[in-house]
Protein 1
Amino acid sequence: MSSERLLEIDIVTPQKIIFSGTCSAVSLPGAQSPFQVLYNHAAIVSALDIGAIKIINNDNTQIYYATEGGFAEVLRNKVSVVVETAEASSIIDAESALSIVSSLKTQLENTQAIGQREELKRLIAIQENRIRVSKKQD
């Protein structure tokens, strides 16, 4: 694939740059619905939700990251992703995440306060997403 049809992509968290390079496509967990960015995509700014970021490299290999949400901007074939966290599928400890989910579900069963219940549900969703993404290793 010629470099003329590639996207530039940067994924950053408050701590560091997670990924910076070129790719042929990227899929993002949009707050309204997931979406894919290809070459010459319309300019867009979107909130991101808990989900998977999928980068399709020039050689068709795929890299997956679990994220808790953030924002993405697409402008002139450059994708800028700013997220709280981005964890590569290859380093996610699914067993640990399963254990955390179990503990959080126990806490949820014993919690009555609506605000605390909503936060526990969000934390469960984050860990369940990590488990799903961990299974998407290339």
Protein 2
Amino acid sequence: MAIRIRKSNERGYFDHGWLKTFHTFSFGNYHDQNYVKFRSLRVINEDRVIPGVGFPVHSHKDMEMISIVLKGSLAYQDDIGNDSILSPEDIQLVSAGSGISNCEINASDKDDVHFLKIWIIPSSKGLKPSFQKSFFPDSSKNNKLCLIASKDGKENSLIIHQDVEVYLSYLEKDYSLNRELAEGRHGWIQVIAGSIALNEIVLEEGDGAAISELSQIDIKALTPSKTLYIDLN
């Protein structure tokens, strides 16, 4: 496999009334034996939640969980003392470790919140639960790969307990990026908005692609676009 495409309309989709959600990988009652995970990448959910409601208190264990708000605002609370409002340009990373209970609610009483949830399996179990949040201005993502999470926290990224690097990129139409993959590394790209060409393969909004056995990828914005890119071991 060099590039394997996961089309937007092939994802799991559920409309719960208060929540409309797409699942790139198996999640909850949705199971796709071909997309349980990719390397340590376990979940990419695209959620839209109506005003004033959300996910009540629930528990997690041994998972690295990144939240990216695309539109609106998301209120977060947990049992280790964190209480936060997440807005576009903020990135949140929760390490569930030995166990954490939290809730996430649309912070607005009039507007939907649209956000991504990315879960990555940690390299070790039973870690101390932790919470991180940082501000990454849109200007840091314009026509470049902006590192938002890494194992060593380089470039002011959030620290994640796995050998991965997570990037966001906002590209102008016709702008191109090149990304080298070291030997034995893999990639996942997710189109958040717009359309791109990945090594001349067209990907539209909501599409994803697993990348293996390549030394370089070329990303060209066919329209103004937003992408998530994850480099994995």
Protein 3
Amino acid sequence: MKREQNVIYIMLNKPSGYVTTVSDPEGRKTVLDLIEGVQERIYPVGRLDYDTTGLLILTNDGEFAYQSTHPGQETTKTYLAEVAGSPSEKTQLALRRGVMLDKRRTSPAKVEIVEMKEKSTVLKIVIHEGRNRQVKRMFEAVGHNVLRLKRTAVGKLTLGDLKPGQWRFLAPREVKLVRGERNG
């Protein structure tokens, strides 16, 4: 007899210094090292770079994972990016129109300045594609290196006050927030 699988959804505030994989051949810490007490075999939905922080969903629901990351689904992802320097209005407009990466233009991004610092600027950027290192590469394409990057939302699901390294189970209504963006 086939055992009914307990489907779970977890939100993690990924700290820097963890790889977003189930295991790492180089022996680095993985995001699963942060999830204690969960017996189900879960895996990350999408990826965050080693030094990128913020909202990461983990689940054992393959359909949910596929729907959340498939390019045609257009699930939005919101980030706070601290970049070197001060992006001009022209630079911000280029990001809003899409920039060339790998000989293809990115979809338009929503961009707004959150905070101006002495030598850097914090911007909120919303994208709905999931290309490899996309946000960092978009800013590099317009001449600004990303100093820090944090994902704050996936769809309408926000990180809230979850501290770095902390995780919690998602409530059914929160799973719907991620699904609802695609399914109406």
